[in-house]
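Q: Got a minute? One more chain.
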Amino acid sequence: MSDLGRRVSPPAQRRAGPSPTRPAARTVPALEQVRPGLWSLPVPLPVARPAYTIVHVLESPAGPYLIDAGWDDDGTFEALCAGLVAIGTSVAEVRGVIVTHAHPDHHGLAGRVRAASGAWMSLHPLDAALLDRMEQGSADRLAATLARAGVPADVTEALPGAGQLALRDLARPDVLLEDGARPDVPGWDLRALWTPGHSPGHLCFWEPVNRLLLSGDHVLPVTAVGTPPPSEDNPDPLGDHLRSLARLRELDVAEVLPAHEHRFTALEHRLADLDALHGGRLAELVAGLRAGASTPWELAAWVSWRRPLCKLTGVALRTAVFDTLAYLASLGATGVAQVDAGRPDRWRLADPR
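A: Always. Here it is, folded:
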């Protein structure tokens, strides 16, 4: 750690905004009928967290349509097939797979479902472009990102590379859905809402007849989802995410159906909680900058994560670093802070004008 890192001590950490207790058990909820013709079908994931992805199944006269598909894993595929049979259909009957975003726990099985059924698969164009980068892998980019953040070498070596390795033969979409597009699902009035942040082309789907928001990973009832670290073509992912959250206030939502955790009501209250959380973390980073912390690694210790930074390990620690980078980029985009690029980057409060 730098001399500055030894001199500047973050305050005793506290929670920034409400954060409900997380369940410890890796249980997968049961298949559930949410509305007539609409099912919640949780499928297990072969990763530590989250334990499952919720595939939403829309029944139609033409056959079922899926929103998201789950991880490309034999056990996940078997669970998906069994759930469809329990509904009274089969994977061979699926007519379309509407993917909220290109992350493996949502997009992964889309190709296998398409091969089994002839269904079409859709994505937003920006996440379709993301598939090329995912196939190339990002281990080198990860190392460079951590170096610029000032993460010590011994910490970097201990961080997992899971999710950063190259993925092979990712299924490309047959249909590209832009903001406002209406997927062709007979009997349902789905409308695509472009909600970038968690991924550049993340899509939610609004169903106004039942006042349902199928939110993918954009807004969850318990977890505040992370954003990728800023990049040249995605300079302010947190700002994008916050603007996308604000956009949901335009909707008269009766219930939110996310792709993880559980469905919930009172979207406005959840959005207020997230505003408080993100606003609190931004304020903590400003306090750290005022105290003289400058590298993203030093500043990450000022943020009220679920546990203090010194107690985070593995994916949770890597996510905290990525989120710190995104928060700092947002402070830069709003003129609050500025960066002197290097290895590591050093941030400071912007000169008053």
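A: The radius of gyration is 21 Å.
Q: Perfect, thanks.
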